[in-house]
Amino acid sequence: MILVLEQILNGLQYGVMLFLLAAGLTLIFGIMGVINLAHGSLYMVGAYAGTWVAAETGSFWLGLPAALAAAAVTGLAIEAAVVRRLYARDHLDQVLATFALILTFNQLIVIGFGRQPVFTMLPEAFAGSIELIPGLHYPPYRLLIIAAGLLVAVGLYFLINRTRIGMLVRAGSTNREMVRALGVDIRLLYTVVFGLGALLAGLAGYMAGPILAVQVGMGEQILLATFVVVVIGGVGSIRGAFVAGIVLGIVDTCLRAFLPGLLRQVMAGPEADALGIGISSMGIYLLMALVLLIRPKGLFAAGS
Amino acid sequence: MRVLGFAVLVAALAALPFVTDALGQAAWLALATRILIYGIAAASLNFILGYGGMVSFGHAAFFGIGGYVVGILFTHHASGEPLFGVIPGTDQMLVTLPVAILVAGLFAAAIGALSLRTGGVQFIMITLAFAQMLFFLFVSLKAYGGEDGIIIRRTNALPGLNMRDKATLYWVVLTIAVLFFLGLRRLINSSFGAVISGIRQNERRMAALGIPAYRYKLAAFVLSGMGAGLAGALMANFLRFASPDMMHWTKSGELMIMVILGGVGTLFGPFLGAGVFLMLETFLASWSEHWPLALGLILLVVVLGTRGGIEALIRRLSALGRGGGQ
């Protein structure tokens, strides 16, 4: 029971990380119609910039603004230099151009930081573990991530449902042409949204640092899972990204934690482990295929 | 005139082993073989992507399946144990290639039947999802090497030919590529090809004409998967190796890059794209360890600067040249 609870918390933590990435991705896709494969690169940039500053200054908390700023500035630069030219193009050109950005960013990071993974320190106040309920010891840093993710979700909810920018974002994801026709400076809106998405990716990247290895290619590993979240949730829907992110995080984590053990009941150890790992890696894609077969536009698709 | 040009091109390609032999550049022959094989895979993808408007982001799955058919059949041939206790292994190319094409086609039929229920970005993602599932399935199949893949100790045999000779293998691949290309051209120019093109341009209008779009799209998807399976089987023969990497999503991305680079919806484009991509990769890699940076920047310039890929660029340049001559 304790173990299940622990894994659900781990899943929740992974889920909010996925949400942070998926929120930016789905905003960018839903409003601008751009498939941005390089979103994972922004996550990586945030992780490296924050980790570097934290290592130089010796303070985890100083790394945070550095990560946010680096990711946001990089995002704005990408938008201005590349993505802006892709709005009117078809998805193929967007896929190719942002794939090229992945190659470029990965190699720039290799040149700057080398191929070895970099490790981020934990903030001192959050090191160790605390006892949540009797018998359940849990690292508070993971709780911090969950809290931060939920805070961002609430913030985005208010931003999108209660502010003028949010109103335009919602309108834009439903009918882009209409927003443009109403005389809104859609170009500025695009830039703001892209910068915001980059900022969230950077936040996720930096927070992932102490848990996962900060390394070249870390963006692609999580990018596919993020795309799955976006598609399951329904393209353009923040609410969908949140629900799908949490569900996917928990499903993925629990499959990985428990499936090999369950299979070991019916077959030999090493084979059970291999098959269990294989099937649990397939899990999120299986889930996506199922959802799309039942609801071809995702769970919370705009306009459905 | 076009027939003559094609004949000259094929003759030049057929003579390539003598040239590389004379120059002592065996690596060029290997590169040319890879370009032909990837050209087949990219042209297969282009058939549904460029002509049918179906952006499959999981085509490496069929490529990998083709490779694994060769690898698995060889494993059972070497061990003498039949697959599932009934299917004997083999190392005969005349058997392995058709089987690879058939199995890839069966997988394409299953994946396509489900994926084609969606469209747009959802289609891109669901094809990717199925490919990833197969990727992880093969990673976890310890019996066939798992993550490490299968080593195929000898290239498949063809009666009367010494397949260990690199030039012979190249000629075999070239022959298959030429046949594939001629077949593809017939397919594109057939009424089937016209329907596929029509569905891309306006699916509703084709439906109004009484054409069942779903069935035609599925047939095209299956044919395309079979082509990719053929390429995968050839690649497994060339590398004497099959691994899950063949169906990794970055491989699907590379195939798509070859298509876009060469020219979407053109006959020769994917071959050109495969050639340019692999040559860039090879030469940049020998020039600097930071070659992905250069490759990334070149791709970026190409996609932002040209519309319609290299094929369109060549056509525009040649039109410019003709215009200047008059």
Structure, explained:
The complex is a heterodimer of chains A (304) and B (326). Chain A has one domain: ABC transporter involved in vitamin B12 uptake, BtuC. By secondary structure, chain A is mostly helical. In chain A, α9 (218-233) packs across α11. The two termini of chain A are 39 Å apart. The model of chain A has no long low-confidence stretch (mean pLDDT 86). Chain A is 75% helix and 2% strand. Chain A is globular and about 60 Å long. The relative contact order of chain A is 0.19. Chain B is mainly alpha-helical and 326 residues long. Chain B has one domain: Orthogonal Bundle (ABC transporter involved in vitamin B12 uptake, BtuC). A two-stranded antiparallel ribbon of chain B has the order 1-2. The longest helix of chain B is centred in the C-terminal third of the chain and has 27 residues, at 213-239. The interface between A and B is large, with 46 and 42 residues. Chain A: This is Inner-membrane translocator. Chain A: InterPro entries: ABC_transp_permease, BCAA_transport_permease. Chain A: One of its GO terms (cellular component) is plasma membrane.
